[in-house]
Amino acid sequence: MDQRKDATAATKAAQQRLAAALPAETGEDMANATKGFLGTIPGAEVAGAWSQKPFAFLNEARPDTVNPGLWRQARLNLQHGLFEVTPGVYQVRGFDLSNITFIEGETGYVVIDPLISAQPAAAALKLMREHRGDKPVTAVIYTHSHVDHYGGVRGVISQAEIDAGLPIVAPEGFLREAVSENVLAGNAMGRRATYMYGALLPRDAKGHVDAGLGKTVSAGSVSLVPNTISIQETGERLTLDGVEIVFQVTPDTEAPAEMNFYFPQFKALCMAENCTCQLHNLYTPRGAQVRDARAWSHYIDEAERMFARDSDVLFASHHWPRWGSGEARRFLRQQRDLYKYIHDQTLRLANHGLTPVEIAERIALPPSLAAEWHTRGYYGTLNHNAKAVYQRYLGWFDGNPANLHKLPPEDAGKRYVEVAGGPEALLEMARAAFGRGEYRWVAELVNHLVFAQPDNAEARALQADALEQMGYQAESGPWRAFYLTGAQELRNPRPKADQPRQGAAGQLRALPADALLESLAVRLNGEKAGVAGDIAFTVAFTDAGERFALSVENAVLHHRAVAGDGDGGPQVVLTRPALIGLVIGETTLEAALAEGNVSGDGAAELARLLPLLDRFDFWFEIVAP
Questions:
Q1: Under DSSP, is residue 100 helix (H, G, I), strand (E, B) or coil?
Q2: Taking the CB of the first residue and of the last residue of the chain, which one, N or C, has fewer CB atoms within 10 A?
Q3: Do residues 502 and 616 touch, judged by C-beta distance below 8 A?
Q4: What pLDDT is attached to residue 510?
Q5: Which of 212, 336, 216, 211 is nearest to 271 (CA)?
Q6: Residue of 43, 38, 210, 33 lying closest to 120 (CA atoms)
């Protein structure tokens, strides 16, 4: 039975107020989103990985359960297929959250940002070949270190091409940052991403309609293939398959390692993900390092000065291009000022003594920026971006000592319920607030009861109803998805599991040996290791030809590269896949020894270490304890 509710009168009124405040509709964005269309596949359907067919409801009239601004963005992101950006530059859009771009070289295609997963990337390459010729991929460029820009690389190049040294270009620090964001904190980030991108929601007008940045995330095979060339300096030039490229490095912008670049022969500027047709995230709700709004604005300004005057077209890793030097300059300057305004005004208000929550409630864009569609919060929001700027400069603490050492949610919840006069009294107050359309207050109040009494069905139902209405009203795709996924999980709690329900290990398997060992350090259970004593042995990876000394001291796992056989204590000989299999429980040490996949006199020390390494439950609770 569908437990979802219709939009309330309060939500309908909120949608009408928002619709009246939107910028004037000129049709320019839809014209740009469809310009240069060459062809597609029905519904952009890629078996088992991606499809736009479930979003056909977006061709109907907007219902009251969807914010008017988000509905417009969702219709723009519904466009899919192969598009000519300019002769020699082509994009496949709408096959994943991100775009894949093909540059025609002298002998083949230079691929920019091969999507999240291999199957949609392969389908995009096939479509390109059908329309532009069956040519090989001659190089790959990763614009930055987020998975939607490299995870599908094995869909466009083979292992043989990787082994042969096919050029893969990325900004300096790419691999380090990709590992840090997607492996060290990967389990938490991945679980939260199921909320942020609506992965668990039905595709309909009461569920997932759009992520703002794109439709949603694909579900194919994800991998990480290290780059072979690092771009280190702005102004650096590189020729790939006869195509000259001028690079601009933009660290600590939308990603810790990112770059824009310009193609002189095509007069085409790629702005990576530093400029998109919306307000982006300075902090992403799935979890990541807070981004530097000041640096972000600076590098957009630098790109405008370096390239815009000579650019006939500007394209990016999401959304649709903009044509003409004048339009490129106008767009870049507005995007530049968007992030600088949020940065400067947040700190102005912070210096007046306002807290992050207070700043987020007060800040508003100036009329010149508010009049643009591409500054609206379909992905990032003014509200949480202001909090991000505060956090970057002043941290999580707002200065009020009452917030310095707060009670954890379950303990606080029990006390709030007691102060309210018990569960029924709290629910009575919350129901009255719900009737007045005060959904934010309902969510804050009832959250205490859910964490105090997670099995209280009435509390879970009312909390779900409040989150649902907030989701319907949200202009941000991620905000909508968070609210609606929270409501869904409150109504349909996932059964508890006896064993950790581990996430996919695709990126773990692609890690270099050094990064793999670093990832083990965050699995070490400090409480267990604190009483287990010191551990020391050497790991020799036969597939990588590398040796490392591992040690556990003071409940901390260390590793360092070693050369001689006598350095680092007893030795374990194995491959990286063998170690991963042991860590995530695909096999046991006894079986690996018996099968010859592990050997050496250090096996006893490895046997001491393995029980100290946690296996992470991907499906940990978020809206309940």
A1: strand
A2: N
A3: yes
A4: 77
A5: 336
A6: 43
| Beta-bridge partner residues of 249 | 259
Q: Per-residue pLDDT for 566 more than 70?
A: no
Which range is least confidently modeled, 8-17, 379-388, 464-473, 511-520?
511-520
Give me the mean pLDDT over the 149-155 stretch: 97
* Span 409-428, pLDDT tens digits: 999 999 999 999 999 999 99
3-class DSSP assignment, residue 281: coil
* pLDDT of the residue at 124: 98
Amino acid at 587: T
Considering only CA atoms, which of 399, 361, 352, 396 is closest in space to residue 381? 361
The residue with tokens 């039975």 is: 1
- On the question of pLDDT at 567 being above 70, the answer is no
Tell me the mean pLDDT in the region 131-136.
98
Handedness of CA 124, 218, 511, 515 (dihedral sign): positive
Residue 515: exposure state from Cβ atoms within 10 A (0-12, 13-18, ≥19): buried
| Residue 565 in this model has a pLDDT that exceeds 70 | no
Strand partners for 185: none
**The residue to which tokens 């996949």 are assigned:** 597
Confidence check: pLDDT of 568 > 80: no
Residue type, 43: G
Region for 416 from its dihedrals, namely left if φ exceeds 0, alpha if ψ lies in -120 to 50, beta otherwise: alpha
Structure tokens at 312: 């006939």
Residue 63 in tokens: 């219902």
The predicted-structure confidence for 499-558, as pLDDT tens digits, reads as follows 999 987 777 887 889 989 999 999 999 999 999 999 999 999 999 999 999 999 999 999
Alpha carbons 467 and 483: distance in angstroms, whole number: 5
Mean pLDDT, rounded, for 393-418: 98
Give the distance between the most distant pair of CA atoms in the chain: 76
Q: Is 194 helix (H, G, I), strand (E, B) or coil?
A: helix
- For 349, the token pair is 């208000």
Q: How far is CA 373 from CA 70, 76, 98, 312, in A?
A: 11, 12, 19, 22
Q: Which residue has the tokens 């009329």?
A: 367
Residue 571 identity = Q
**For 170-183, what is the mean pLDDT?**
87
Would you say 178 and 189 are in contact if contact means Cβ atoms under 8 Å apart?
no
pLDDT of 430 higher than 70 = yes
Mean pLDDT confidence for 347-370: 98
d(CA 473, CA 480): 8
The Cα–Cα gap between 533 and 360 comes to: 48
Do 480 and 209 meet the contact criterion of CB atoms below 8 Å apart?
yes
How many C-beta atoms surround the C-beta of residue 504 within 10 A? 12
Map residue 440 onto helix, strand or coil: helix
Q: Model-level pTM?
A: 0.96
Distance CA 271, CA 251 (A): 13
Does residue 166 contact residue 229 with C-beta atoms inside 8 Å?
no
Average pLDDT rounded to a whole number, residues 330-350: 98
Contact 491, 460 (CB under 8 A): yes
Are 151 and 223 a contacting pair, CB within 8 Å? Answer: yes
Beta carbons within 10 angstroms of residue 600's beta carbon: 18
* 135, 120 Cβ separation under 8 angstroms: no
